[in-house]
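Hey, can you fold this one?
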Amino acid sequence: MQLRVAVIDREKCDPKKCGLECTRFCPKVRSGIEVVKLGEDGYPVIVEPLCIGCGLCASKCPFKAITIVNLPRELESDLVHQYGPNTFRLYRLPYPEPGAVVGLIGKNGTGKSTALQILANILKPNLGRFDSSEPSYEELARQFRGTLLQDYFTRIARGEIKISYKPQYIEKIPKVVRGKVGDVLRRVASPGKLEKVIELFELGHLLNREVSALSGGELQRLALAACLARDANTFIVDEPSSFLDIRQRLRAAAAIRSMLSSNIRILVCDHDLAVLDYLSDKVFILYGRAGIFGIVSGPFGVREGINIFLNGYIPTDNVRFRSERITFQVRPPSQQEIIEGGMPLEWPEMTKTYDGFRLEVRSGRIYPGEVIGILGPNGIGKTTFIKLLAGVEECDDGYRLEYKSVSYKPQYPEPRDIVVEKALRDAAGPKFETEIYWSEVIEPLQLERLLDRNMSELSGGELQKVSVAEALSREAEIYLLDEPSAYLDVEERYSIARYLRRIARDRRAYIFLVEHDLMVLDFASTRLMVFTGEPGIHGIANPPTDLKTGFNQFLKEVGITFRRDPETGRPRANKPGSQLDKIQKEQGEYYYLST
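Sure. Predicted structure:
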């Protein structure tokens, strides 16, 4: 007999506007057994042990608010936390190890943040007993006997675990933290750590700036510095790479590793696989159905674990959680393949000057069917260049570029007073109803549950996904996407990258992609534009070049080398000073394009 899991989405369910089809059509209810009943709050409750899993309630629900899945019965004893009746549940937990950096990888909505909050002692696991007394830490230790979690929860109960937690949504920091950057760090820093974190995260010039005036990348660096500066023996870091450029991401990863010692535990969750690979010693994989259930598997060695995730099959659990493997282009397209069939789109030399910053754009061209990846440090003018191409900004001489049709996704989407479904229908037109559109846009980005929501009510991550989908849904000659992967999980990022390549190929479109996730650039791009100069002062937009030249040019400035994984073809950062790192630097091969 299988374990029945029934989840009712309270945001969709509206008992006052339906005929309670979940109750009327249930065979068990019609035979006199109360499988579905109304709770005290007026919402239906499905009694899972009595449910036969016929799925009639889910299919008849007019709001599509019910999901019923079957899981292996042996998972029942692995239940760690459930938020309430017919809600999301998490099975098993990852565990931090002394002297190691443990990484977490998985889809959004499968319980990563729940697991991190449990281990950070913010959320106490209830072992599924949401309607009775919560378990003590002694009971939790017994539940996980024979594992490192037993020792972990025992030490929490004794007060021996000192935790420093860096949350995921750093944009909320200005709402709860007031004052100047230097004062904030001095309040939380332990003796001897203040100067170190200021140097590691390059915050010296920001010490007198108000927290409320910081950009997204500056807030992230402040949050990381505050987390690592505390007197703690366990550091839990949720998504450290958001809003940071490639150099800052790898520098942050090195800073986190620098805190490691034999008695220090570090647990990190991140969607940038290059950063997670560079940072971690071991990884846990979370899989399941977003918002329904999550299962933790592992630990695995970092290379093995990331490759397992990319392959979509976990051999230890004998579970395939994705139908397709994620693979990378080991051989980039040749110039002849790029230019075949179409006239190039060209832009002239131009300049754009703001207060204290000047961008110089070199003339360049893009061919039909190309995806031009744009990379460079923050504050170097990438977004300004995209705005010039989009016609949102004009050059210093007053000239404004104009093209036939442009679809533009800004770096920070603005919420609008429109229902998500209408926004996507307006953008997609008749293809909104097609199966291929749903399989390549709606389903990979998990937009079904957002269709009846107003865009003004969406969270930052939800708004980002809708904005990306809206931009890609329009019929246009030119697509300009500014950091589309922010907030997206690994699978969503590669769904977007794959769809970009499809649009470029099928529509013969011109696509520009500003991105800091190096693996997304590697996966999607045909050529690269590398921005150089001095951030915040002077930027140079160099013309597009081939992937090898572009990556080598950029990574040489950063001082990091990458190799190819022989199994998946994904780029992997070499440890600084390693033998391969030294060899590649001597050869000038900072980015190997072959395995």
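The chain has a mean pLDDT of 89. Let me know if you want another pass with a different chain boundary.
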